């Protein structure tokens, strides 16, 4: 962890060059920088032992900041200090064997080898190879701190050499040998942070650096007398501070384990405590246990954070908080996150971090991993950046007046209508209550105005039926028996769950209408509401319910219930935290979260879901609208097929039909369906093939273009296949994680699925078997719609007729 000290001419003004045949005896000042520091032998008030050390030169109270031979003192007056021609610092005590050595050498190049020892203005003792062109650094005391951290001295770890610099306390006020206490960085365990140890026991923790200060430690004002710098990269992890003014400042770990920032006051001739890193009684590490929060304004100081309860109530009542707290309700992966502000963020040893991710990406990554318990920004400056995630119980939380926010995974029912107010003074709380009261009145008046507006806009809410979608009980009786076992939700309950279909709850929109996130009976749900402007309606609503109400498969989205109220037609689904496949697949940043194993898993899951629809369900179902936006992803990135509004059911072996109303999405529709209205199970096979190529390439079929040809994604894949260059189709982000033979096989299977002739395409059973086996695959024929020109002609043909063709919507 070399400091690269200055080597200009002026810095050598007080340099002493000491050769092997010279020695400085006990009692003399050996080296002085002329300003701040000097080096020599010293002894403490109550001890006869002597040590080589560095101390402040102009302070009346001798304050030692570094000791060389702290564990090997000289017990008489025979001490001698030497430097060898190889650059090794040595201390002798009445003999020829050194009692201390810096263990620093450089190869001797000539008989005139010259080594220089210098005490810099910073208090850093350095050894130079003085003959080298750039005065090569051989050794420096800043790499070997004792109990004191001086301005400009790094405290951390060199990840290249493995050397870690830590502060080690004196054994007693008069004994500088290594004591019981250590102040050190956590090193390579999670995100770096500083701990104070007594032996192997953690006493306190300084929260990690957040760009403005250490979490849970008072942040200095911009005009502070010192500034802190943090460097965490693949080579080294360290913090250091630099002085802004002339006040003498040092950070020291005392013999009894306190970590203090001290200032020298010349008027009183004393060192005074500027800060104590333990801060207060809540500074004791993990005082309140997992998910417990400490507050110095409370008695007792420990309480469970909201949404949690004591793990052991009896121990908690006896002021033994070590067992901490637990979730009030069992957790599952689909739950969301609650924002906590005004807290010291938890112990980061079991965390991961990424400097390039935004908070939104951080949330998404945490949702994808069911073991992720919380997340936060690394740096809170400029609106926040970087991603910090926890994967274990959250320990050592305390209330603190800070701008950093922590997002903790919570049960869905605990996320509704809660406001968390922490670490506020009584005066600030009073002001906040006034503001909340005013805000409540404003919100009430706004809600009243909105309700009046809504009543005018949606006359069915006042009993006036909307003729476009009006649905009467006599119609309902014709098919309601098929809803047996499916829960009915009242409109009032759905409205409450979605905050009256608030825009802030909207998570997407499709051909049927908008989709909202809500909480019903304590469970997060997705609410799909028929839009007044939708070209779909009652038939599609009934179709979706009949198709999926009693289907049970891990790769199909689960329908939980429905709501029918006059013109309102609403479907309630399980909520899937990771939205839809296209949300990740076609975004440059989010697509990086989909490595090859995950994409292969998604392809397999979709294939199994389609096979279930075609062959294993009680009704044979053709989906007719398979596309990336209709593939939802759960927290483990398992795919679930959704949106059955356009599906068709069949009974028996004949699963083919013809229609005058072509439905689906451009880019996924097979030619026989687009041109002649013929659809069958092979229609879904074609759509699946297109979807496979999109998943492998990360490109949209309809929007694909290439500078060397006019083909779309299918045409590009076909061209590469004929040239034996199919691997070039794969997204560049998959190169590290891919299994090349597996990728090539998947592309081959996809090309078999998108062949122009319906008879040439395999069934989904064959597709599933081809994906998991090593059998020889048949050679594919030319795909349908393999040029952009043909696609545009078909698109013009369809748009000129009354066909229900949809575009892709974000979900």
Write the layout of secondary structure elements.
Elements: E1 24-25, E2 29-32, E3 37-42, E4 51-56, E5 64-67, E6 79-83, E7 89-93, E8 98-101, E9 115-119, E10 125-129, E11 136-140, E12 148-149, E13 155-158, E14 167-172, E15 175-185, E16 194-198, E17 201-206, E18 226-232, E19 236-243, E20 249-253, E21 259-265, E22 270-276, E23 292-294, E24 302-304, E25 308-310, H1 313-317, E26 325-327, E27 337-341, E28 343-344, E29 351-354, H2 359-368, E30 374-376, E31 387-390, E32 397-399, E33 405-409, H3 426-457, H4 473-476, E34 487-488, H5 491-497, E35 506-509, E36 514-520, E37 523-529, H6 538-548, E38 559-565, E39 568-574, H7 581-585, H8 596-616, E40 620-622, E41 631-633, E42 639-641, E43 648-650, E44 656-658, E45 663-665, H9 671-676, E46 678-680, H10 681-697, H11 713-722, H12 740-753, H13 764-772, H14 788-799, E47 804-806
Parallel strand pairs: 23-32, 34-38, 45-47
Antiparallel strand pairs: 1-6, 2-3, 3-4, 4-5, 6-7, 7-8, 9-10, 10-11, 12-20, 13-19, 14-15, 15-16, 16-17, 18-19, 20-21, 21-22, 23-24, 25-26, 27-33, 28-32, 29-31, 30-31, 30-33, 35-36, 36-37, 37-39, 38-39, 40-43, 41-42, 44-46
